[in-house]
Structure formats: structure tokens, C-alpha cells
Design goal:
heterodimer, A: alpha+beta, 434 Repressor (Amino-terminal Domain), 48% helix, 7% strand, B: 201 residues, alpha+beta, 6-stranded mixed sheet, two-stranded antiparallel ribbon
Chain lengths: 378, 201
């Protein structure tokens, strides 16, 4: 007995219509596929095997029980206007697939208690300052590795091997559990901003408040999440002092590598904080366009990946992970398993934040603190 | 903030690309000399500048912000300044004495370099404070030597006795592998004793 919704889920992940799937399987008609997906008919063994091949899983996958869908919790999508329904569905199905695997992996290890507060009614800047305190950051410090810090607060971060230019990330409260889902293929600064933005939604906007607000206020919610992200990543008191009085693209590129946010965000922030006037902002934007930096900005920001999923898989399947067994127990193909696992950080991928005190590091070694000599008076 | 550990943390993402870029530059320089049967000792400056050219392009391709400031009055390789994480890392091919001692190059009479050595605000980016550090690299027959030496200057001019330094320390390639603490909160639910740990009780 299979669950027809599993076929629909995998079609969503592969962005295939029923007709496109039917075209790949000889002898199958759309009407029959539709009935199978609605659990009004069951496929025979051969058809099931063919479906598994086309959809990149083992046949057992179709018999697995599904968890309550993430879509039911109406995640607040950080979307651009051109996001299509199929892209939205595909992203959600990927998130669902990863979330199910994560839920299974959690049975092998302890869980991290959720310490993320809900602050409905707080101002975005005030909430961001509070979150910085909870993260143990002082007011002058850039957030060194945002994703790891959030996972330590009990936020579930899913990363999916699905890339759609119209969508960066989305989030939802799954019961009492905050969930952020990241789409793949984004540069480091954009990942950090998207995560901070989604964190703003989680902290400031619960399901009830989102539902209570009319659709016309959707932009207000996005603006609040943006304001939260800006204050979290670039606290107003510090970033205003860190900026030169007349910022250039070169100085902004340096700030980008310190604070892990894009040059365009920094210009926006400088304008908000009145470090620069409108003319200067326009001039900087024009320079970005003329240099072609709207597509590729200089200034390296390391790509952050969530860690918890892979760490749990390491606990369950050893390090390095026995991917064959991991895939078999989820009824996934190994290709799918590698694709999902690659979205999560290995211990060796975690960027150095200066807090590690392992045996390898001894900064006193061979360092010569030189006595300052005064230049000769002439 | 501008201590040696803080500087290493700030430039950590640059370490591996920097080593790779310099090594690639050395390879290209050796190839060009080999093709023409040139000897390196006859044109030390050209060899070093070839290394620089390749290294700069590699670093830029990696998304790093790299300055070139080529004028004839400064030591070889002085033209690379990598700006990352609040640090302006100026790379020099280290001058080595006959006794094999690495010397810190002098800023000579260049006012711009002297300001860099003095850690003056605006010496690298207008109106902005930066942590100005020298990175001294050497090679042995075309193989980059690990470590690169980091030196934080405090002042200097054309006279050796006027050179003032804050600290000096290694920038080892392995430092690129230093990592943040893992998610230690995630532990196996049941930790089974290992056979090689012996029995108690």
C-alpha cells in the first residue's frame, strides 16, 4: 500500500507536471496517475519501480508515512514578485523531505532546547538588540557565524539543494519549533542577510499576527524583518561610527568583509543612519552599476552552512557518514542523499571565529612581541 | 583588537587562497623562465613581478579585494595589498640577508608607505582606520615557504634604526583549517562503552 502523496511530493521537488511524468513512463495515463496520487488506485509493482527510477528514490519511499506538511503552517516567504506557484511548491517539498529526514535523525541524538523568544509587538531594532544579547554578542561585534549561533539557540535550519532565483529562504514556527529553510547556490553575504531576515519573521511575527494582518500589510511585515536583519547584522551605533564620513566603494568593500553584509546593504544602512545623503547614495549605486558589481560584488564573505543535520547523521551513521546506509534507510537514491548532505557543514567547514581552544592553536608560539622603539630625534 | 591572534582570525579566510595564489604565481614565473631558458638571478624583479601578476588575478577571481600599487621605488612584490576583515595585508617578497635572516623591508622615503607603517587612519582607505600588517613570503627554488611571516609595523623611514614594530608572528597554512567549536549540544542519546576502554567495577 503506497501513499500517492509521495509521488506528488517528488514531482513537486523535480518541478514536473503529471503530464511530464506520464510522458516518461510507457503505458501510464494522466488520469491513472491522478487517481494514484489521490489514493484512489494503487500501482502494480512494475509501475512502482518505474516511478521510483524516474523520481530518484527507492520504491519503498512511496510506502513511508509522511509528517504533517510544513505548508500547513503558512511560512512567510521572502519572495520576489516573480515567484511562481510551482517554485514555491517545489521549495516547500524539498523542505518537507529534509525535515522528515531530520526528524528521523533526531531519534539518534539529544536535541537542543529552543531558546528563541517570540517578541510580538517589539520594535525590530529592539528585538534585534535583544537577540544579540541572547547570542552573547556585545554591541560592537559582528556576528561571526550566524547559522551556527542560531542552531545553538534551537532554531532548526534546513538547507535544500534547490536553486530558484526568485526565492532565497523562508521560515515558519512548526509548533514550538522555529524552522528556517535556505535554498542553495547563494553567496555568503546573501545567506546571512536572508537568515537574519527570516529570524526577524520568527521573532516578530507569529502565525496569528500574520493572519490577523491584512494582505496589504505584507510589505510592512517584510520591512520589519529587513529592519531587524539590518540591526542584527550591523548595529546602528557601531556601524555609523565604523563608516568613514564619505564612504567609497573600496571602504564599503572592506566593511563588507568585516560585517558579512553586501555593499548594497551597507549603502542602504548608511542612508538610513544619515551617514550619507541621497546624492552620495545615488552616486555609489551608479558606480556599482558601471563596474558591473550588481552581479558580482568584490569582498569575500565565507558561505555559511547549517551543521545540525549532518552532525546528527554523523552520530547515526559514523563520520565519514555511511551514505549508502543513510540513503537506504530513507529509501532515497544515493545521489539524492549526497545532494542533501552537501548542503550541511562538516566540522571542518565551520569558519574560525576565534573561540576554538583545541590543541592545535597556540598563538603564543613563535610570536615575538616587540618592544616599541622611539625614532631618533634629529 | 590589532593583536596577533585577532589579526590571524580576521585574515583566516584569505590564508589558503593566498598560499595557492602565490604558489601558482611562482609556478607561472618558473614556466616563463624555463620556456626562454632565462635565469632567475639575472632578473629577480621580473620573476617576482610575474608571481605578483598571477597571484593578484587569482585572488581577485576568488572575490578578494586586492590593490596594486606599482611604482619603481619600492621592494619587489610591494604592490599587493589584500584588504580583508579590517586588515590591510601588504605582501612583500621578504628580503633575506646573506646570513639567511629575513629582514623587514623599510618604507624608505615613500610618504604613503611611511603612513602605512605608522598605522595612520586613511593610509589605505580614505577616512578609515585599518590594521596595517606586512606579510613576508619567501620561496625555495620556486616552492613557497610555510610560514609567511606577519609583521605589524608602527613606523619607519629609510633608516633601519627608525623601524618600529609591534609584533611578528607566523601565518601558517594550517591556520586556514582552524575551526569554530562544533555543535557540542548534539550528543548521541546512548554512548556505548568502547571495547578498548576497558571495564570498571
Amino acid at each position: 500500500m503506497i501513499d500517492g502523496q509521495r509521488i506528488a511530493q517528488l514531482r513537486g521537488i523535480r518541478k514536473m507536471t503529471q503530464q511530464q511524468l506520464v510522458d516518461r513512463i510507457p503505458g501510464l495515463r494522466q488520469s491513472r496517475l491522478s487517481r494514484i496520487e489521490k489514493n484512489l488506485a494503487q500501482p502494480n509493482e512494475e509501475l512502482l519501480a518505474l516511478l521510483a527510477v524516474e523520481l530518484g528514490v527507492l520504491a519503498d519511499f512511496f510506502s513511508r508515512n509522511a509528517l504533517p506538511t510544513l505548508a500547513a503552517h503558512s511560512p512567510q516567504f521572502r519572495a520576489r514578485s516573480r515567484l511562481t506557484a510551482s517554485s514555491r511548491a517545489s521549495a516547500l517539498q524539498w523542505a518537507q523531505l529534509s525535515y522528515e529526514a531530520l526528524s528521523e535523525l533526531r531519534t539518534f541524538g539529544s536535541s537542543i532546547p529552543v531558546c528563541l523568544p517570540k517578541m510580538n509587538g517589539a520594535t525590530p531594532a529592539g528585538a534585534a538588540r535583544e537577540i544579540r544579547k541572547i547570542l552573547g554578542l556585545n554591541t560592537t561585534q559582528p556576528v561571526p557565524y550566524l547559522l551556527l549561533a542560531l542552531e545553538r539557540l534551537g532554531v532548526t535550519v534546513l538547507a535544500v539543494p534547490y536553486d530558484d532565483n526568485a526565492l532565497d529562504a523562508f521560515s515558519a514556527w512548526q509548533g514550538t519549533e522555529p524552522v528556517i529553510c535556505l535554498l542553495g547556490g547563494r553567496p555568503g553575504d546573501r545567506i546571512r542577510y536572508s537568515v537574519a531576515h527570516e529570524l526577524g519573521h520568527l521573532v516578530l511575527h507569529d502565525e496569528a499576527s500574520v493572519a490577523a494582518k491584512s494582505l496589504s500589510r505584507g510589505k510592512d511585515l517584510e520591512d520589519e524583518a529587513d529592519a531587524f536583519a539590518a540591526e542584527l547584522l550591523t548595529p546602528s551605533g557601531v556601524i555609523a561610527r565604523a563608516m568613514p564620513s564619505r564612504p567609497t566603494l573600496s571602504s564599503l568593500a572592506m566593511l563588507k568583509t568585516q560585517w558579512g553584509v553586501s555593499i548594497k546593504s551597507l549603502i542602504r544602512r548608511a542612508r538610513e543612519l544619515e551617514v550619507i545623503d541621497q546624492d552620495r547614495a545615488i552616486s555609489l549605486y551608479k558606480q556599482i552599476s558601471s563596474r558591473g558589481w550588481n552581479r558580482f560584488e568584490p569582498g569575500h564573505v565565507p558561505v555559511e552552512k547549517p551543521r545540525a543535520f549532518r552532525k546528527l547523521a554523523e552520530i547515526a551513521y559514523g563520520d565519514p557518514i555511511n551514505v549508502g546506509l543513510f540513503a537506504k534507510q530513507r529509501a532515497w537514491s544515493e545521489e539524492l542523499a549526497y545532494g542533501v548532505l552537501d548542503q550541511y557543514a562538516r566540522a571542518s567547514d565551520l569558519p574560525f571565529d576565534g573561540t576554538y581552544h583545541g590543541s592545535l592553536i597556540d598563538f603564543r608560539e613563535n610570536v615575538i612581541q616587540l618592544p616599541v622603539r622611539r625614532p631618533k630625534q634629529r | 583588537m590589532n593583536t596577533y591572534p585577532a589579526t590571524v582570525v580576521a585574515v583566516q579566510p584569505v590564508i589558503e587562497p593566498l598560499y595557492l595564489a602565490l604558489q601558482h604565481g611562482l609556478k607561472v614565473a618558473a614556466e616563463i623562465h624555463g620556456q626562454h631558458r632565462w635565469r632567475r638571478r639575472h632578473d629577480k624583479q621580473y620573476y617576482s613581478h610575474t608571481v605578483r601578476r598571477r597571484a593578484v588575478e587569482d585572488l581577485r577571481d576568488g572575490g578578494f579585494v586586492v590593490d596594486e600599487d606599482d611604482h619603481g621605488n619600492v621592494p619587489a612584490m610591494s604592490g599587493i595589498t589584500v584588504r580583508h576583515g579590517g586588515v590591510a595585508l601588504r605582501m612583500y617578497r621578504a628580503p633575506v640577508t646573506r646570513k639567511g635572516v629575513v629582514e623587514v623591508p623599510l618604507p624608505r622615503r615613500s610618504l604613503k608607505l611611511q603612513a602605512f607603517y605608522r598605522q595612520e587612519a586613511g593610509s589605505v582607505l580614505p577616512g578609515m582606520e585599518t590594521n596595517n600588517v606586512l606579510g613576508l613570503w619567501q620561496d625555495d627554488e620556486g616552492v613557497l615557504i610555510d610560514p609567511i611571516i606577519l609583521v605589524r609595523p608602527l613606523g619607519g623611514d629609510h633608516r633601519k634604526e627608525n623601524l618600529r614594530l609591534d609584533w611578528k608572528g607566523p601565518l601558517r597554512r594550517e591556520m586556514a583549517n582552524y575551526r569554530a567549536v562544533d555543535l557540542t549540544a548534539l550528543e548521541p542519546d546512548v554512548q556505548y562503552p568502547r571495547l578498548d576502554e576497558g571495564m570498571t567495577g
